[in-house]
Amino acid sequence: MKLQIIICALLINTVYGQCPWWWCEDPGDPPPLGSYGADADQVSASGVSSGGYMAIQMHVAYSASVMGSGVLAGGPYHCAEDTVSKAIGACMNSPEEIIVQDLIDYTDSSASKGDIDATSNFASGKTWLFSGSMDNTVDPGVMVALEDYCKHYMPTWNIATEYGIPAGHAMITEHYGNICAAEKSPYINDCDYPAAYVLMNHIYGGNLRKPSSYGGAMPGDMLAFDQTELEPTFVGSTSLDTVGYIYVPTGCISTPGCKLHIAIHGCLQGRHALDEEYALNTGYNEVGEENDIIIVYPQVTTSLGNANGCWDWWGYTNSNYDLKSGVQMEFMKNIIDRVTS
User: Fold this and answer.
1) pTM more than 0.90
2) CA distance from start to end of the chain
3) DSSP labels for 155-170?
4) CA distances from 60 to 161, 182, 185, 207, 304 (A)
5) 45 vs 97: CA distance, rounded Å
6) How many other CB atoms sit within 10 Å of the CB of residue 20?
7) Which of 46, 49, 63, 239 is catalytic?
8) Is 49 one of the annotated active-site residues of the chain?
9) What is the pLDDT of residues 302-318, one digit of tens each?
10) Residue 169 catalytic?
11) Which one of 117, 135, 241, 312 is the catalytic residue?
């Protein structure tokens, strides 16, 4: 899940494993994303690496709609400042070069122009921040910069941090993946630590029921959906894949009012690289089933300037990438609006 920025056209040879039963029969024509009447006041997002950057972008830019975020191995909002050199430098391995006040000034200016929601919404939200002490891809100091950014807006009790787990650059789980310090595909590490539960428990007030076990078949509906009909009109490559995934807990299939969480993969973790592995094995579904939280797994793929299938946190789509008008940001909001309708 390295966050290398490669500005050139590349031919990517993608090797797919066996497709899952729930979309194998017609992978080119999945159904539209359903409407579930989820609670529009209980929407949150989390992600790892580029997905972590996207999660904080969603929380800041759409703070009137997103009430909480979880960020693993990402960094502060607008860290790259639409500049590749800052993305691969300050925002990955040179945190001393991050000027948090500049990011705050940009946030305040964007809010004053209506390009993002009012910062008072973000100030009332909650965030959970994770950096593995063995992360050799994104320096833990970058996450500390995000913590400092959040502290400017939020009361300290709304911010939870975990920097003491000896984890590499990866999504962290209780039960699945590589050894904890690894930094290799699928970039999911078994650290005996249920990150998905811990982050959502913080976001939703500390009273979630903890799953008794992880892994195995789930009783809810695991579905593929058509992402193309949610994609905004855009000139150029969006990097958005054609298919996304959703887990609908048994308590939410026919009953409205469930919470909604957007779980965002990192680089080299999308469907193009892992099929459905991220969606099935990161622990979100178990937490969702136990607590009536719908989990959506949006997907990006490779494109020109985005050889590793990362979410746009440096501007490969355009300079609006982290504003409400950014194409991937609008796509995320369309997901929220659909599931809560």
Assistant:
1) yes
2) 34
3) -GGGEEEE--S---SS
4) 18, 31, 30, 25, 27
5) 27
6) 16
7) 49
8) yes
9) 999 899 999 999 999 99
10) yes
11) 135
